[in-house]
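Hey,
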Amino acid sequence: MFDLDRWTEIISALKKNKLRSFLTAFGVFWGIFMLVVMASAGLGLERGVQDGVKNFATNSCFIWTERTAKPYKGYLRGRRWVFDNDDTKYLKANVEGLEHIAPRLFGWNLRAGDNTIRGDRTGSFNIMGDYPVYNDIDGHTMVKGRFINHIDITDKRKVCVIGERVEEMMFKKDENPVGQYLKIMGVYFQVIGVHKPDNPNVNFNGRKNETIYMPFSTMQQAYNYGNEVHFFALTAQKGTSVKNVEDQVIKILKERHQVAPDDTQAVAHVNIEKQFKQMSMLFLGIRLLVWIVGIGTLIAGVIGVSNIMLVIVKERTQEIGVMRALGATPGKIIGQIISESVFLTLIAGWFGLALGVALTEGVNYMLEMQRANGSEIFLRDLGIDFTIGVSALLVLVTAGALAGLIPAKRAIQIKPIDALRDE
């Protein structure tokens, strides 16, 4: 394998027709380059999505109301309806396997124009009424201050937690917003914290960094929502199917609000457990597709290597005949041809691998720079891992050996006497 004369012959053979060798090697180079780039992009997409939902409760579901699609018990089709506070208590007491339930209010009627004022600054933001437990389902990291607590709910305190974008628009750069007041639709609220969402890729009714959160009970009273609940966030206990909890909740809510049991449009819902499973299957499919396309492109290059080796064997018929006449064994002839094929494939593949890694690292650096400047970049941590790199090298060696196998067999089938007579 490490015979100097053999490697001298290999290099000499490839140098005889440099253009042909280059074009042949380019097919392998392009195949491994595309494999690396596509695999890196697929991994970057998967990591970006996972990072955007890393602290989201995967055992959760979300339920809200829509217009009814069927008449029922004297109520007409198209009826608007909402949940209420009694639903929260009833669900807690009667749903088996329920871990957390977090009712929420959406300030739909509070979003007309600029709804927030502070001095000469104004802004239009999403307004939400929440319980502290919601943070256990869709987490936030507190940059400053604290999140809503149970005393805020019980005492109906006029306090709020704001997103980073709200802080940026309503306060000066060096000003601490905690303890300051915002006038939200005519009512003053004291800022108790600034949050950063742990799951920026999951949004309900607006971007989280442009949202103001206030105690659920305070929002009901301050803006005359009465007993309304607009939205339920639920989690299932460990070992309990989210689908089971979801079905129980929907059945109970329909019964309590006189909605037809077979009305599938009256209750809208999202099962996060199901969504995560589908997402996992999607990324598995992407990985498989990347390898199929990449290896397919690589095989096309390997076929080119095999064809060129057949041409080289034909051109060296007399040389092979002389080697056989001087006592060269079939194993040595096969080893020579396969070594040339593996060498050409490895060199081309190494350049493709190196350029692919360099390109993805360069793109990754630019994406990180954009992210540091505040841009929302979906891709994250581009680059191949150790497993992909080793797999690519193994594919290259195997491909090179296979590419040289057919020409090698062709070479040992040549009879020495016939080879010597060849012109």
